[in-house]
Amino acid sequence: MTASLDAIALRRRLLITGVGGAPGLDLAACLVSAGHIVLGTDSNPLAPGLIIPGISSRTVTRADSPEYKADLHTLLAEFRPEAIISGVERELPLLIGMQSELDAAGIRTWLPSPRTAATTLDKALFYEAVTSAGIPTPLTALPKDLSVLPEADGLVVKPRQGQGSKDVHFCDTHRQATVLCELVTDPIVQQRITGQEFSADCLVDRDGRASVILRRRLLVHGGMSMVASTFHHDQATQLVKATLAAIGATGPCDVQGFLTAGHPDPVVITEVNHRLAAGFRLSEAAGADLVGQTLSGLFNIPVDHHRLAYRPDVHLTKYVAELSTQPRAQPARSHP
């Protein structure tokens, strides 16, 4: 992490959720190495982020569990963090609903509006929002409207509120898509887009100004970019900024899309995740102070967008590594 002097002059107490995988794990590791006091949480007691050297850790129920809010209250009372940074999109509605009590307790958050959170979590709402703004995106339909999608480019069936590559299926015909819709919970069907997939690490300050760092997703496993390279592309940058503005994004975001092949639009936006992306460390390696400026904005220090400039053609390769070969102590379980 490139240190943001304003943001890390103080040793912060930070609660990072979802440390079972990137980006929560990488963010927690960055913050620990920068000297902050970090409590990491995850619903899986085997999550690797729970045993990062120097981290405090707790297991909690899943974000969609009715017990999650009680678990979070227990953690806040015990750990007394200065701020929460969420790595789990499913918990955004709950945190937004707790905004007033978190503010009253002096716990900093940087959360989107309820409408923005709903738009990024629901692919049908996202399609409506970006098409209304004239932003190119894959044609999208619910199963009952499947016939409006052309078969020529192929089709993608996925959960309407899914994440990563879980339960994502590719097919060629309406008939195949109809069968796949029976296998996917609350499915949606999209036109398949081909070309160079990219992600944009974005930070939108509290005044709505956005910085964008583009990286090509050269090798993707399980929805996560394992090999990537930064690049500059004016049209993609402007389209990403337009997308962020159209949905009312704020704080750190991940925008994904394609530099297309055989499509009328040279750049197509596919989704927005309202959190840091799994590959954000590449942006840091390319010179963008993404984590430092996120901390600045979190604590109401003006974001310095000049420090979010980056170099193109910087490459990142992620791989599986051993974090511990010692007997593993179980992290404490939070109970209300």
Question: TL;DR?
Answer:
The chain is α/β, with parallel strands linked by helices and 336 residues long. It has helices spanning 5-8, 24-33, 68-79, 92-97, 99-104, 114-121, 123-132, 174-183, 234-247, 280-285, 290-298; strands at 13-17, 37-42, 56-59, 83-85, 140-141, 155-159, 169-171, 187-191, 195-204, 210-221, 224-231, 251-260, 267-273, 315-317, 332-333.
What does this structure look like?
With 336 residues, this protein is α/β, with parallel strands linked by helices. The protein has 3 domains: 5-112 and 322-333, Rossmann fold; 139-191, Dna Ligase, domain 1 (2-Layer Sandwich); 194-317, D-amino Acid Aminotransferase, Chain A, domain 1. It contains 11 helices and 15 strands. It has helices spanning 5-8, 24-33, 68-79, 92-97, 99-104, 114-121, 123-132, 174-183, 234-247, 280-285, 290-298; strands spanning 13-17, 37-42, 56-59, 83-85, 140-141, 155-159, 169-171, 187-191, 195-204, 210-221, 224-231, 251-260, 267-273, 315-317, 332-333. A 6-stranded antiparallel β-sheet has the order 13-12-9-10-11-14. A 5-stranded parallel β-sheet has the order 4-1-2-3-15, with helices on one face. Strand 9 and strand 10 (210-221) form a beta hairpin. Helix 6 crosses helix 7. The radius of gyration is 20 Å and the shape is globular. Residues 1-8 have low confidence and may be disordered.
